[in-house]
Amino acid sequence: MAAPYAHMIQSATVLRKSNLYLSRYDCGKYNGKRGRPHVAFASIQQSERNISIDPKVESLLDSVKWDSKGLAVAIAQNVDTGAILMQGFANRDALAATISSRKATFYSRSRSTLWTKGETSNNFINVLDVFLDCDRDSIIYLGKPDGPTCHTGSETCYYTSVFDLLKEQEAKGSRLALTSLYALESTISQREAELAEGETGKPSWTKRLLLDHNLLCSKIREEADELCQTLENNEDKSRAASEMADLLYHAMVLQAIKGVKVEDVLEVIRKRFSQSGIEEKRSRASKKSEEH
Fold first, then answer.
1. In the predicted model, what is the mean pLDDT of residues 282-288?
2. Rg (Cα) of the chain, in Å, rounded?
3. Average pLDDT for 214-231
4. CA distance from start to end of the chain
5. pLDDT level of residue 42 (50, 70, 90 thresholds)
6. Which of 94-103, 119-128, 171-180 has the lowest mean pLDDT?
7. Which residue of 10, 116, 156, 199 is 20 to 30 Å from 76, comparing CA positions?
């Protein structure tokens, strides 16, 4: 069973890596690079007895099944889309640094040093939680990326389909490993792009909806009503799932027109988890009154 720890562990005051120390509050240098306000690095010479590390952090680090080299696989995952952003390795200090700074930190096997994703590109991965797998020998950094994760500029490092390679198709940065919802979003975006290019011929249903906003809005209202009828008429769950799929598809076409991504919607939902629905509606009402 996966075990989340970041939310329950108080940040260590200072974390040790040889004579290199990481602090959330001090600015300095790390690997010769200037520290940034949100992830500040400092080289400090001091004795180990002056280092304060939360006992819970120590206990957690002891529980991880590090391999013979003191490493474990560390995977970064987008908290909103679920996309696997990248995979690296973490050692004891890298995991401790991630917990303290809330920035995804790894151990470079080639350079034999810690590195924080984004320390040169500013495309940090802001960690909201950390999970261990059931064997405690691999780690997930669940977080929100500030920008593209891959050094190629791709959103994630996973854009090479094995089946495309077997078909001798070239790997493209835009061909991401997408789940069903995001594959649908990508298809809608492709239809938008085809319209912008002035493609001729009979338009697909998606293109018709993109072109006719009145038709789109009428379909959203129609599908929403049909979904409600599955509850009112006590229809089976397969019918409800079908109507929900119709509503979701049409709503996503509207999202595309408005330039809103599924990720944007899921981020709003995530931020509302800690807020009561009544408070959220009240805040929206107050914002509307201020606008008027």
1. 66
2. 24
3. 98
4. 50
5. very low
6. 171-180
7. 10
CA 251 to mean position of chain CA atoms: 22
Q: Are residues 252 and 239 in contact, defined by beta-carbon separation less than 8 angstroms?
A: no
Query: Where residue 284 falls among pLDDT bands split at 50, 70, 90?
Result: low
Task: Report the run of H or E that residue 76 belongs to, with start and end.
Answer: strand 72-78
CA distance 113 to 109: 7
Rounded Cα gap, residues 14 and 36, in angstroms? 17
Nearest to 11 by CA among 52, 68, 45: 52
Distance CA(32)–CA(234), nearest Å, equals 66
Residues in a beta bridge with 218: none
CA–CA gap between residue 35 and residue 116 (Å, rounded): 11
Beta bridge partners of residue 41, listed in sequence order: 22
Asked if 129 contacts 123 with a C-beta cutoff of 8 angstroms, the reply is no
Q: In the structure encoding, which two tokens stand for residue 5, read together?
A: 């720890």
Helix (H, G, I), strand (E, B) or coil at 259: coil
Q: Compute CA distances 272 → 265, 277, 278, 281, whole Å.
A: 11, 8, 11, 11
CA diameter of the chain: 75
